[in-house]
Write the structure tokens for this entry.
Amino acid sequence: MPTGNASAIIEEIKKLEQEFGGHLGVMAKNLATGEVVAYRADERFPTASAIKFPVMTAFFHLVDQKKIDPQEKVVLHDRDKKQGSGILQLLSEGSSLTLLDAVRLMITLSDNTATNLVLDRLSDTHDGRMSVVNDFMVTQGLKNTRILNRLYSVETKKLTPEGIRYGIGVATPEDMVMLLESLFKGTLADSSSCKVMLEILKQQSYREMIPRFLPDHACTYLDVANKTGGVNETKVDVGLVFSDKVNYTIAIFVDKHPDHREGPENQAVLLAANVSRAIWNHFTGMTGYHDRKVISDHVDWNALPGGNWVIWRSTAAPFPHKDRVNGFTTSNGTIYPYNPHYADSSITVFIPDGFKESPEGSNVIVHFHGHMNDNMGVLEQFGMPQALLAQKINALLVLPQGPYRARDSFGGKMEDEGGLRRLVEDVLTTMKREKVVKSTSLRHVLVTAHSGGYRPAAISLEKGGLSDKITDVFLFDALYGQHEYFRNWLERSRGNLYGAYTDHLVDESTAFEKATSGEPKARLHFAPTRVDHNAVVQEFFGLWLNQLGRDWKTE
């Protein structure tokens, strides 16, 4: 349900336009309720490459009429490459591809050469090609959407007011929403053609605008089927958003923007991304803007004696999380804003030299850090990689980012059902992609926690989805609560629970020991220590690693 009335979201959109600059037009429609958000929705804007979406619809209209075979081969000639741009320019004279593949390249990579190959197949003449697209738009009830020229074709450009003002195409947000809604309903073409078009749009490579700030971490599923456009002062994104929370169509046009820089930090691009999130918030009742989608498959490698550590960003990391989009205020009034404390989605992994996956899979150690720390701080401070090497442990050490330098034990996605399983699956998938392992099979898991990391560790044992794989648990001055989860795991598993505690956790730890009886008591290994709270990891990690079975050792 929306959190405010129509005027509130329009005021928010105006505020964003003032903040980021440019001339903005927007329309969005909730496909379940019919609610519309419109701001300059009937105003005409340049489309740039977003006009390729109408071209695709006209193409499939001809496919449905059996006038075009999508599997027909087209041959690439040098003249095609001279009048276009994109990946096809890299291919040799005489290369061939199907028309359907050209359509895919036209949408997913916005390849201009591919677009011209598609356009050229629509009719024998330039005017005829334009008419095929534009006449189809009229049949769909679109009043202002027109393709005006072939891509990079100066000789066919017309010196009409539209041609001069709008370049290759013109449309309104209202028109694009109408066209997208017809695609959603399956009435734009045959049902099979609509399905193909949706799948192509979902494969879009350019995600800097509509999808950029949408909170996929807060959704069971979230897909965006979109087509972007951009040239000089114009930035456009039109698409359909599908999620378990809301389905809607949206069109965002930014024109006359002075920022001509290329890249995701262009202010017009950021305006579109923020407007997209504002509309999402309005339709869902959520808040916040900066759940930024990041590149999760870029892995940074760093060598050190005895191994390598890598870092990347992942949607399976504990944060961002819906319960901290507005930050966190402690009981004593300390405020931890979302950025930077809950915006870090990094995962760090140490890979010791000589690490090998067994036929059963890989061993993984997951460590949850404590208050006022971060995963890189753990890597630096506590000697955990050194302990793995000294004890000849054959495992990947995983350090997910928790609350960044905050006094907060919240575990983020580790508190969601199956959170630990998704984290480990992402680690193994990434390691396979980086050629560290050959499979994503998992052998054993060791869960460790320091200080405030007790909570994600405990909840991961209870509902993380890997309890049958966890052989041991290490608690470094960390038994602050969640006793029932630690006891449940100890009683239903055959694993060992190790714990070291300083004076301030004597009562908690001794009470847990006294309450443990029978066979599980033999697998409970608690010890008091006089070392400083922040030295417990260094003191006990290597000692306990040495107690692990042969399955964990390199020898």
In short: The mean pLDDT is 92. The chain is about 35% helix and 20% strand. The chain has three domains: 1-43+172-292, 45-166, 300-552.
